[in-house]
Design a protein that fits this description.
CATH architecture of chain B: Sandwich
Radius of gyration of chain A: 14 Å
Order of helices and strands of chain B: EEEEEEEEEEE
CATH class of chain A: Mainly Beta
Shape of chain A: globular
Oligomer: heterodimer
CATH topology of chain A: Immunoglobulin-like
Number of domains of chain A: 1
Order of helices and strands of chain A: EEEEEEEEEEEE
Distance between the termini of chain A: 41 Å
Strand content of chain A: over 45%
CATH superfamily of chain A: Immunoglobulins
CATH architecture of chain A: Sandwich
Largest interface: A-B, 26 and 29 residues
Structural class of chain A: mainly beta
CATH superfamily of chain B: Immunoglobulins
Chain lengths: 116, 115
């Protein structure tokens, strides 16, 4: 079974600084998807960024980027120029590729605090 | 914009009651999911459905059942609620898994308290 590990229950960063959230995963599959989801306080979970395992290039979305190390099974999220609105729970998630429905396997989450 | 709605944001039920949590999506998604979210445990998959009347067990199906009579609606049923089912329940939907833009869209969640 796949597992996703987020080793940082909580992280704190000063506004405008850069922060990196860690995620490692375990799988025997060669093709899969990795995701970072953001859950602001009392608000809906939203997708931040997605990475396909077959793509070597790291995904980026504006201030958000990932460092995908397939051999090391590592998938960290870097947030540049942190803003107060970035404060949230961040979840790393895994899904195997291929047809058929399949749920996501989530890590336990990292609570990100932005210090003004 | 994809919209996933859940029937209640907060729900309080008594032990032994039958509880229905409803989820509706408006984007004609084939797949729908129910997760449970607990502090320090992340999200865990309870059940999912890939078509009307089709369902598959997730990682923690015990004590739950589901129903999908229409494509847009997916219900989670607690046959006899227990206090250990007090949790946040999140519904999600997605296109077919082999779609190039596969991702899951989440509802706002239902915080269920069983007393």
């Amino acid at each position: 079974a796949q597992t996703v590990t987020q080793s940082q229950p909580e992280m704190s960063v000063q506004e405008a600084e850069t922060v990196t959230l860690s995620c490692t995963y375990d799988t025997s599959e060669s093709d899969y998807y990795l995701f970072w989801y953001k859950q602001p306080p009392s608000r809906q979970m939203i997708l931040v960024i997605r990475q396909e395992a077959y793509k070597q290039q790291n995904a980026t979305e504006n201030r958000f980027s990932v460092n995908f190390q397939k051999a090391a099974k590592s998938f960290s999220l870097k947030i540049s120029d942190s803003q107060l609105g970035d404060a949230a729970m961040y979840f790393c998630a895994y899904r195997r590729a291929g047809g058929g429905a399949d749920g996501l396997t989530f890590g336990k989450g990292t609570h990100l605090i932005i210090q003004p | 914009d994809v919209k996933v709605t859940q029937s209640s944001r907060y729900l309080v039920k008594r032990t032994g009651e039958k509880v229905f949590l409803e989820c509706v999506q408006d984007m004609d998604h084939e797949n729908m999911f129910w997760y449970r979210q607990d502090p320090g445990l992340g999200l865990r998959l309870i059940y999912f459905s890939y078509d009307v009347k089709m369902k598959e067990k997730g990682d923690i199906p015990e004590g739950y059942s589901v129903s999908r009579e229409k494509k847009e609606r997916f219900s989670l049923i607690l046959e006899s609620a227990s206090t250990n089912q007090t949790s946040m329940y999140l519904c999600a939907s997605s296109l077919r898994a082999d779609s190039p833009t596969y991702e899951q869209y989440f509802g706002p969640g239902t915080r269920l308290t069983v007393t």
